[in-house]
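To whoever is on call:

I kicked off a structure prediction for a single chain this morning and the downstream step that reads the tokens threw a length-mismatch warning. I double-checked the sequence; it's 349 residues and nothing unusual in it as far as I can see. Pasting both halves so you can look.
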Amino acid sequence: MPNDLTTFSRRRLLAGTAAAAAAFGGFPAIVRAQAREIVVGGAANFAPWMNGTVAQAFEAKHKAKIVYEGSRSLVNLEKMQKNKDKPYLSVVMMDDPVMILAVKEGLIEPLTPATVSNLAKLRPGTVHMDGMWANYLQPWQGIAYNTKALAGGFPAWADMYDPKFKGRLVIPSLQNTEGLANLVMAAAIETGKPIEQAQFEIDAGFKKIKTLKPNILTICTQIPQAMNLLEQGEAWAIPSLFSSVVIPREKEAPIKMSAPKEGIFVGPAGVCLVKGGPNKELALALIDMLLSAELQDKLQPETFAFPSNTAAKPPVGLAADVKVHNLDWAFVAKERGEWVKRWDRDMAM
């Protein structure tokens, strides 16, 4: 039988607990307050601006926190696969080819203008598979060149075939996402068709790009090593690098990013809603914010990427009327394995 002290202590504990619950509006309110956050998966190198500019803007507007897990697209896909029955991620940012795999496995659910108002304000070609995902800020691809070797810049993709560049070009392998733009441009030059059509003429692309071999110093899979060759002047240009790699180095090295007259390519940077993920309302709010012109403008100095919202400003150094090309990533995902084998055979140095 409990003594008086035990009884008194229990009464005090229960009274104190009830008072605390009342003061905070009950335990469910405390739990809800603690749970007002979403877990977002994305690329590791996005962490500085996702944990900084984006997280601050989101918390200020929605009084909620972002927990950011930075890794790689395929790792994020694996997380969704393993937790399909009980997802913990709410939003995922992945490359478009990996998004296609997520759609096939039923891991994501579509976005609509009714739930994401900025979806209706995006450039053509940036909303995919009836809204299963959308592109936000996209690193753009042009031609990186050494300013000491090429004071006049690099005005056109077609110039890379000029004999004056003999042994002076570095091009990314087709194993790299960067390498696809060169193959598509080769097809456009060979066929004379618009890039949007030429991207399906891959035989013509291989026929043309093989003629580039005398101008190639090396074919790279490791971009940092390629950048070293460019900065030292051993290479004069690297066609089809991403802006996010080159532009941050422009103040430190004699290199610059060119937007050739034929236009630029934009990277496959997508954002999606995880099917059955926690805090769906907050997840949709974050996606809408990422697709807004306001946030895309704010992120320009950190990402050096091209905006998908038509009301956003173009990146510094790019004309407002620059031609922007999107690849058909479903076609790429289907065919790329065979292209890489052919590349390794045809382009061996």
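Update from on-call: the warning came from a stale cache, not from the record. Cleared it. Sanity check on the structure: Confidence is low (pLDDT under 50) at residues 1-34.
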